[in-house]
Amino acid sequence: MARYRGPKVKVSRRFGEPIFGPSKALQKKNYPPGQHGRSRRRKPSEYSTQLAEKQKAKFIYGVLEKQFANLFEKASRKGGITGAVLLQMLESRLDNTVYRFGMSPTRRAARQLVLHKHVTVNGQVVNIPSYSLKPGDVVAIRERSKTLEIITESLAVYSNRKYPWLEWEATEMAGKVISIPERDLIPENINEQLIVELYSK
C-alpha cells in the first residue's frame, strides 16, 4: 500500500510543526527548508494557505491524496459540520487509534504494527490501517506480540496519554473506543475550515 516515503524533517520544517513526532532538527532549524528558507517570503495566497492546511492534515494522519479526497466526500455526505466530521473519521482510523493508545510512538509505527498483524479488533486480527472503528470496539495487542520491544517500550513512555473518548486497560494491553471525539477534544493543530473551503472551489 502506498504511503509518503520522502524526507520527514523537510515536511516538518515547511509547516513549522513536528508533523511526524518530536524532531531535534526542527528545534535547530525552525525555518522552512531550502536556499531561501531564512529570507522573507511574500504573503501566501488564499489558495496556497488552504492547500497547505490540507497537505498538513494528510501528512499528520499518513493519508495520500485519493484516500483523503474519498474521506472528504464521505464526510460531506454525513450530517453535521463537514470539517469536524472529516477529522472524526481520521481519528477513527485503526492506525491512529493504536497510536493514541500509546501502543506505538508514531502513527507510522502504528501502521506497521497493524500491517504486520500485531493488532486485534474485538478479538480478530485486522491488518488494514484505515479500518474505521466504532464506539464499543476493543483494540488490543495480539497475545504473541505483547513482548515486542517496540510495543513495551512505547507503552512505558506513552501509555499515560489520556483521551476522553478512549479507555485503556494496561494489564490486558487493550483499549476500548468509548465514543467518537468531539472536535474540541481532537488535539491536532488543523484548521479544517480551510480544507472545506479548498474542496468547495
Number of helices: 9
- Summarize the amount of helix as a percent range: 40-55%
> Which CATH architecture of the largest domain would you pick?
Roll
CATH superfamily of the largest domain: RNA-binding S4 domain
What would you report as the Rg, rounded to the nearest angstrom? Answer: 18 Å
Domain count: 2
CATH fold name of the largest domain: Structural Genomics Hypothetical 15.5 Kd Protein In mrcA-pckA Intergenic Region, Chain A
Overall pLDDT level:
87
Order of H and E elements: HHHHHHHEEEHEEH
Count every beta strand, where a strand is a DSSP E run of 2 or more residues.
5
Q: State which percent range the strand residues make up.
A: 5-15%
Short structural description:
With 201 residues, this protein is an alpha+beta fold.
Describe the protein in words.
The structure is a single chain. With 201 residues, the chain is α+β, with helices and mostly antiparallel strands. The protein folds into two domains: 84 residues, Ribosomal protein S4/S9, N-terminal domain (Ribosomal Protein S4 Delta 41, Chain A, domain 1); 87 residues, Structural Genomics Hypothetical 15.5 Kd Protein In mrcA-pckA Intergenic Region, Chain A (Roll), CATH 3.10.290.10. Helix content is 43%, strand content 8%. It is built from nine helices and five strands, in the order αααααααβββαββα. The chain has a five-stranded antiparallel beta sheet, with helices on one face. Helix 4 crosses helix 5. The longest helix has 16 residues. The mean pLDDT is 87.
